Amino acid sequence: MSSVLDTYARKPISFKEGKGSYIFTEEGDKYLDFVQGIATNILGHCHEHLVKTIQEQSKKLWHVSNAFIIPEQERLAKRLTNNTFADFVCFQNSGTEATEASIKIARKYFHKIGKPEKNRIITFKGAFHGRTLAALFAANNPKHTEGFGPKVDGFDQVPFADHEAVKKTINKNTAAIMIETIMGEGGIKVVPDSCLKGLRDLCDEHDLLLILDEVQSAYRTGSFFAFEKSGVMPDIVPVAKGIGGGFPLGACLVTKKAATGMIHGTHGSTFGGNPLAMAIGNAVLDIIFEKDFFKNVKKKGEYFGNGLNKIKNKFPKIISEVRGIGLMKGIKVLVDNTEFIKKLMDHKMLTVKAEENVIRLFPPLIVEDNELDEAINKIQMVCKEMN
pLDDT per residue over 341-368, tens digit each? Predict the structure, then answer.
């Protein structure tokens, strides 16, 4: 019997090593990995620049308290703010911590400017913001919240894509609107640019902060953030997963205005922003900043999307929709997604499910066209088997 707490329905398989888009079992079987730690290993397994970086930094300094200046942290923060909307970065260890920081920053802002009654946040049905208590009740999915009462108050949930419901929910106590730019766990649902613009307009009209959760989508869509193509400027953006290339790293990016209330003592993290994590975060940016990197991500995303749509058109009784942007893709199937994923695994391909009977596909951003072709062929084989 395992001594690990049984909170995951783990598949009876384990892996000993990986390289790029592939991962290998203890027995040496080779799998095409389009889970990649759930959108996390954006440079694939054991990218040589990340391996070299972690080896070099591990010989110098792993951890030091945030009570001192951490040069690697200063460098990563500056590189992020120089290339995004943000003025400041607050480093965390995970996506749920980045979400919690976002909630705290929004509430503290209004408290600081003399409006403490503005402390509620509007969220959307189908969202996923993490596993801590506030993050759980922000998303308010009964599957995740049952048994964890009493309910953490301060959130008002509205249906996804219901702009009128958002308008009606805003009141004198509303502080912010929080939404995933692309709902990951919710089924790779992309929030249209027009909706993001509408939310920004509502925030401006009612003096609210706009929080765009990019924990799963940051770097993955062919730009720093998925919201960039909309032209919308958020106030707060929590990120994690891919920004560490597989190493535990989260961050909350924030404007100078929204950060007003965050003074000494208002927030902290023992491990957040430690030298080892910061070195790896910078190493990821080294690759991201290479010439035409994001251009190639977009190109590969279009190539993959075209291939998936061809399968959809060939098997309309199996696949009803192809979703996503860049290399953050989802296929909505008309058969049981768990069974589909199992059959893909039989064909040595790993994927992960989401709500709305969707299968999520997260190839690394360095994936080759032949590896995308391999994925397309495997998906097509399963469609034939289940047709």
Answer: 999 999 999 999 999 999 999 999 999 9
